Amino acid sequence: MTTAQRPTLEAVARRAGVSRATVSRVVNGSTTVAEPIRAAVRRAVTELGYVPNLAARSLVTQRTDSVALVMPEAATRVFSDDQYFPGIIRGAAQELEAAEKQLVLMLAGSPAGHERVERYTTGRHVDGVLFASLHGADPLPGRLARLGIPVVCSGRPLGGTPVPYVDVDHIGGVNRAVQHLLDSGRRRIATIAGPQDMVGGIERLTGYQAAITPAGLPEWVAYGDFTRESGAAATWQLLAAHPDLDAIFAASDLMAHAALRTLRATGRRVPDDVAVIGFDDIETAAYTDPPLSTVRQPIQEIGRRMTRQLLRLAAGESIEPALVLPTELILRDSA
Amino acid sequence: MTTAQRPTLEAVARRAGVSRATVSRVVNGSTTVAEPIRAAVRRAVTELGYVPNLAARSLVTQRTDSVALVMPEAATRVFSDDQYFPGIIRGAAQELEAAEKQLVLMLAGSPAGHERVERYTTGRHVDGVLFASLHGADPLPGRLARLGIPVVCSGRPLGGTPVPYVDVDHIGGVNRAVQHLLDSGRRRIATIAGPQDMVGGIERLTGYQAAITPAGLPEWVAYGDFTRESGAAATWQLLAAHPDLDAIFAASDLMAHAALRTLRATGRRVPDDVAVIGFDDIETAAYTDPPLSTVRQPIQEIGRRMTRQLLRLAAGESIEPALVLPTELILRDSA
DNA sequence: TTGTAGGCGTTATCAA
DNA sequence: TTGATAACGCCTACAA
């Protein structure tokens, strides 16, 4: 389907009886245009339905007015119901909207996807790059940073090159949670840890250890990948090894939810026999049976702050190398 | 931070000792280049780390190689844990990735956001537009279609202009669900309907009516907006009006989940006293108490199919005006 | 305050 | 098969 040519600056200029330059000035809000002319141009713009061609503008301004949000995750995790990625997306979208920039979403779960993202971002097709999460010592953020491309990560990058990031106080939050378990008399406290190639997984385990060890208690650890399935498996594992455990701290609410179910399946009552605390405070947490106590992290705020940092970076400002947001222990009925 | 200039076609051409045109041909895979020259150009590209400037390319090709995905939703709904939007996003992302196109995500919950989306999309900054949902008779899809901009919607558009869409068989799915309730002896069947400015909300209610009416039973309807809160409120309403109801069909799993909780709060047992069926089959559905029976819709597949249709449209092919995917009744323990 | 003119990096049309 | 060369639509010195 061939469509009517869209009007260009030139067309507007002709219609308004001025030069292209003047139209450009009006469109870009320059103050050095006389009011009557400005009005005439505005009218011409409206009549013709003129909209600037971003490609042309980008070509000369060297900006693209778009930002990439990269999610280096296997498909299954990105959009399960754990709300992490959606929360980041939403926070970023809000801030970018305010800044009139576009959000380009890139999934990079597979090696091919990761490579695609690398090509695209290093090719400077965006003004900056946000990483919604990171696995292992992914070299890409560092590489981009060294190329002078603005980057901000969610979670402290494990790679060598320092890259600005926004994270939450995992350790503090988990510490408070486990401390609460100790305070309420629990003494056989296990944990379902998250993936150990991610900072969140690592630090939440550290937080558990930091509370357990000083209390002279043994560490009982099983590993999951934040999903429900892995949480169920880990719970069975813990129960097999330590049938007498009296509390579980799970590094994600999804895993905690699975633990709740599994414990019930084995006839254990929560919190009477076993207390459970999760991490995240997803919406479902208030609706589990019993309602889940958890460590809340402000996911959407992470997305917002990352974006704000990135925009400052892209504007040439220098920014804090790290921003750490607080976590909060939410007590419901499971502990 | 000033960065080393990125290499241009010109630079590669000089390095390889050929003209810009030849480099362009090699980069774009033209077959009319002699092998030795092609090799030399490839080498120069690698050595210089050349990446084409998409803005420049777009300027001359008139394509942007990007597609907008618009979500005209209030922030609260887009990223609750109902997985609808994330599922659409993921399906679209997969297909776009395969087609080497970028996904530009646009939230349009507020009037300002909606207007922003309109400016951007009508400005032809993307090769096509996907609507993840629609409220009322939103004129935007029709307007874009008339401008010759490829558009595909999720859910039949209520506006006047016909726009290609992908949807699921709401009515059939709901019909089967209510029929199942009837078959198991329920006779006082209420429904929590979805928002009546959305096709999904409307048709799921129609499906309920289409099963209830022929059975000579009364329609008991309360309205929600697909969220848990609204589902809880609607359940209270229904119970107040019809304390003796023996089944509830809810137009979303989130609302069904809230119904489950509310029923329990009033001392009713599910499914003994009241049967409950939801719609969506979100991940949580298998984890509610009791596990939720529901009508499954293939959300991710909707996203994929929409995108494929859009790409065909953008390629100049003509496509089916509508694609309707099947739904499936999943029986668990709540009914 | 306004206009002229050059150039941003590609692709595409011709010639050679 | 390769190379000039002209667009593509816009911004921005610089000149008037």
What does this molecule look like?
2 copies of one chain form a homodimer. Chain A has 3 domains: 9-52, 434 Repressor (Amino-terminal Domain), CATH 1.10.260; 66-168 and 299-325, Rossmann fold (3-Layer(aba) Sandwich), CATH 3.40.50.2300; 170-296, Response regulator (Rossmann fold, 3-Layer(aba) Sandwich). The first copy, chain A, has 13 helices and 12 strands. Chain A has helices spanning 9-16, 20-27, 35-48, 54-61, 75-78, 84-98, 111-122, 140-146, 170-183, 199-212, 228-241, 253-265, 299-314; strands at residues 66-71, 102-107, 128-131, 151-154, 165-168, 189-193, 220-223, 247-250, 275-280, 293-296, 322-325, 328-330. In chain A, strand 3, helix 8 and strand 4 (151-154) form a beta-alpha-beta unit. The longest helix of chain A has 16 residues, at 299-314. The termini of chain A are far apart. Chains A and B meet through helix 4, helix 6, strand 2, helix 7 and helix 12 of A and helix 4, helix 6, strand 2, helix 7 and helix 12 of B. The first copy, chain A, binds a DNA duplex (16 and 16 nucleotides) through residues 8-10, 18-22, 24-25, 27-28, 32-34, 37, 52-53, 55-62.
